[in-house]
Design brief:
Number of strands of chain B: 0
Shape of chain B: globular
Radius of gyration of chain B: 26 Å
Strand content of chain B: under 5%
Number of strands of chain A: 10
Distance between the termini of chain B: 35 Å
Oligomer: heterodimer
Number of helices of chain A: 9
Structural class of chain A: alpha/beta
Helix content of chain A: 25-40%
Distance between the termini of chain A: 19 Å
Chain lengths: 250, 563
């Protein structure tokens, strides 16, 4: 579903945020890209979403190449940012309505989808508030619903659980696994390993802009030389501090 | 704490110069270069104007004195309203103030805000005041101390006006908080904005009533052939009601070499300014309670049974078309943003006031023999085209130029959606062109009605206004898209970047060209002048939009990239 090939991003000549990253994510799976702060996770996900332009390399979503003008690729993607900022003077409902309109949904379909989605996080009753009055958690919930509204094929999630209460985290995990079971593909970038451990089918560890290792969880455990029941945090601690790159997929 | 704030500001400037690479130093140099060029323009205009006046025994004292009064009153008005708008939002809508207000040094916040408001509001004064004083030195030989005294006087006036604006905000906000505590008002901030606007409108109305009878001929008693020098007592009496009067008196004293009087007046102004700042400082401790009140939300929780939302909900404002949806989003974002609306209202009001000056010109010269060939309405309208260029540029700089940069943290929502960047650009262009053109046409109609011109002349004028407003809007949007700045979403800060100043420069040149072209239509060149101007406008707008559209697909739409 998602193919990334030799992706590099430089911010100025001396600052390499992402260094020759290649990875592939199967349709109907959840992939977790984990790494410490400043490792390049957000840069990668923003390049896939079209917010940042790669210095070199290719990104393909469902067979369609991603670039600044790729409407076809964008139709397949739902994006949930790490910073859930929306125009302060727009209500939550208007934001969902606007998002649906951007994807070409007619008013009746949008209304129907919004009524279906709002109960997921029990947001009925606050949907007519301006965004500037929402807590961070509620903002995050609305951006999650906006990404799901147009039923994308690939869901990109940057730090998904910041600001969410434990119950909402469980709801999100349930939404993601349902989405995966219905054929959707998810890329999560996070440094909070709990959610990655619980929902991810495969993962990659990134540090200093380099993808150190990528593969299914059993493959990663084997590459890290840790027991079969080891958590992702154990795998992470092996690779995130390593200066070596594991060649090809683990 | 106050010392810490002042030191921090100095460190901020020092750090900028210490750490910046060559490219940014060049940017800063160019920025100051443009300011110096504007200053040189002011200097030479005033030198030639005052020089011509200085040769006339009759006007040597009176006319410069009148110019000082009008100039300082205009500056006073601009600083007052600018400080009000900046102050309202800086005092109550800054997201990063909480950290200081929860600390033991919470009472120093108001002073820091006052410094920020003053710096934001008065810096343009230096571009005009310093070259104006240098021009006075050239023409009237006022000497070094004269320049120093003049500068001190106008800076004090700026601080006084800023303090008065902040005092007005604090007084009104205290009043609104009191009403709120009695449950007489909800949404206190809207009430504060409404009350402040009402006070400004009442003041503007009073000034208008006072100034509408202004007649230069009567003011200088021109008809009286017995006097050798224009009488300034009428002018002095006329302007004595304004706070700017004392500074104008100081400048006159400097001009005639009476430094003792100038010094006394400056000390008196300093005392009044210190008193005003002292009154502001009285709010230092109570400010936290006012701030808390205006940070409260206005949302009221409801039960689900109360909603009946599906039955009573308004129809969606968005269509299924992404382009018209973005257009609607722009409309909602702009017309619900009180700060933007305030700036539009402020600039439009100023524009109308300047346009109304046409009435003054007609009053002053229509019945006099001094109305020469150049004072025909077409000449006045040519000048009005420059005014149109200036105000459209001001509106575009504040609202349109930052349109792409201000998306910053919200860009993800649109950029990741299936709409091409070129369509996004043209949708924004359609929205801003229609908004700016609508304001321009309304004011152009007002102007035409005031001058009671022929239908042909009126239509031509409106056509020029339309072309100027469309072209400048497209240039502003294009430059803003070509040079986006995602480091800040503060439109005032964005307007003062180098591309912003570049836009100002282009706008001034383009506005002058438009005025000259308009004048040529009546000076015998005819419609060829219009056609050439239209062609030039289309080419200029097209070139800048093309450059922006080439750049957009390669733009990184992200303020921060951390992990």
């Amino acid at each position: 579903m998602l193919e990334i090939s030799h992706l590099t991003k430089k911010f100025g000549p001396d600052s390499i945020a992402v260094d020759d990253v290649s990875l592939s994510i199967e349709k109907g799976s959840i992939y977790s890209l984990i790494g410490p702060n400043g490792s390049g996770k957000t840069t990668i996900i923003k390049m896939i979403a079209g917010l940042l332009q790669p210095t070199s390399g290719d990104i393909t979503v469902g067979g369609t190449k991603v670039d600044g003008e790729s409407v076809e690729a964008k139709e397949k993607i739902g994006f949930i940012p790490d910073n859930p900022t929306v125009w302060g003077k727009m209500t939550g409902r208007e934001f969902l309505d606007f998002t649906g309109a951007l994807y070409g949904y007619d008013a009746d379909t949008r209304q129907k989808r919004i009524e279906e989605l709002l109960p997921a996080f029990s947001l009925q009753g606050v949907d007519d508030m301006y965004f500037e009055y929402y807590s961070r958690g509620n903002r995050q919930k609305f951006t999650i619903l906006a990404a799901l509204l147009h039923e994308p094929e690939l869901l990109l999630i940057d730090e998904p659980i910041i600001g969410l209460d434990p119950q909402s985290v469980r709801i999100l995990e349930s939404l993601l696994t349902d989405y995966r079971d219905n054929g959707g593909t998810v890329l999560i970038t996070t440094h909070m390993l709990g959610i990655a451990d619980r929902v991810a089918d495969s993962a990659g560890v990134i540090a200093g802009g380099e993808l150190k290792v990528t593969g299914t969880l059993p493959e990663l455990r084997e590459a890290a030389g840790v027991p079969d029941h080891a958590k992702l945090s154990t795998i992470y601690s092996v690779f995130a501090t390593s200066h070596e790159k594991v060649s090809d997929e683990a | 704490m106050i010392e810490f704030f002042l030191r921090q500001r100095l460190h901020h400037v020092a750090r900028f110069f210490k750490k910046q690479e060559a490219a940014r130093l060049i940017t800063v140099s160019l920025f100051f270069g443009i300011l110096v060029l504007i200053g040189i323009g002011v200097y030479f205009s005033l030198t030639s104007g005052l020089g011509a006046v200085a040769e006339s025994d009759f006007l040597r004292i009176g006319l410069p004195y009148f110019v000082y009064q009008v100039f300082l009153l205009t500056v006073l008005g601009l600083i007052f309203v600018s400080a009000l708008i900046t102050g309202l939002f800086m005092l109550f809508r800054n997201e990063s103030d909480a950290w200081l207000l929860v600390s033991p040094a919470y009472d120093s916040l108001l002073f820091d805000k006052f410094i920020s408001i003053a710096l934001t509001s008065i810096w343009p004064l230096f571009i005009f005041a310093i070259p104006a004083l240098l021009a006075m030195q050239t023409v009237f030989s006022i000497g070094f101390w004269g320049i120093v005294l003049g500068l001190v006087s106008v800076v004090l006036l700026s601080l006084l006006v800023t303090a008065l604006a902040v005092l007005l905000i604090l007084s009104l906000s205290t009043f609104v908080r009191y009403l709120g505590s009695k449950h007489l008002v909800t949404d206190g901030f809207s009430w504060l904005l409404g009350l402040t606007t009402s006070v400004v409108l009442v003041l503007a109305g009073l000034i208008w009533l006072h100034m509408s009878g202004l007649d230069l001929v009567t003011l200088f008693d021109v008809s009286n052939l017995d006097i050798e020098q224009a009488d300034i007592s009428n002018v002095s009496q006329y302007f004595s009601v304004f706070p700017s009067h004392m500074s104008a008196e100081t400048l006159l004293a400097i001009q005639v070499g009476d430094l003792q009087a100038a010094t006394s007046l400056t000390f008196l102004l300093a005392a009044i300014t210190i008193a005003a700042i002292y009154f502001v400082s009285l709010f230092s401790r109570p400010f936290i309670y006012i701030w808390q009140y205006f940070r409260e939300g206005t949302f009221e929780a409801r039960t689900r049974t109360n909603l009946n939302a599906d039955k009573t909900r308004k129809p969606s404002p968005f269509s299924a078309n992404p382009i018209s949806s973005v257009f609607t989003k722009e409309r909602i974002s702009m017309f619900r943003n009180k700060r933007t609306l305030f700036w539009i209202g402020f600039l439009t009001l100023l524009w109308i006031i300047v346009t109304s000056f046409d009435v003054f010109i007609q009053n002053s010269f229509s019945s006099q023999e001094i109305a020469s060939a150049v004072m025909v309405p077409q000449f006045v309208q040519s000048l009005q085209i420059i005014v149109v260029g200036y105000f459209v540029a001001a509106l575009v700089l504040r609202i349109v130029f930052p349109a792409f940069s201000m998306e910053r943290d919200t860009a993800w929502s649109i950029i990741t959606a299936p709409i091409t960047l070129s369509r996004l650009f043209w949708t924004k262009a359609a929205f801003y062109v229609s908004t700016i053109a609508a304001i321009s046409i309304l004011i152009a109609l007002l102007h035409v009605l005031m001058l009671s011109e022929s239908v042909t002349s009126a239509l031509l004028f409106i056509l020029y206004v339309l072309v100027v407003s469309i072209t400048l809007t497209l240039i502003g949007l294009g430059l803003g898209a070509r040079f986006p700045n995602f480091l800040t979403d503060d439109p005032e800060e964005l307007s003062t970047t180098l591309p912003g100043f570049g836009f100002v420069g282009i706008s001034l040149l383009y506005g002058s060209l438009a005025a000259y072209s308009y004048y040529l239509v009546f000076a015998g060149v005819g419609l060829i002048s219009l056609m050439l101007f239209l062609l030039f406008s289309i080419c200029l707008a097209w070139a800048i939009c093309s450059i922006a559209l080439d750049k957009l697909p390669h733009t990184d739409f992200a303020a921060r990239v951390e992990s």
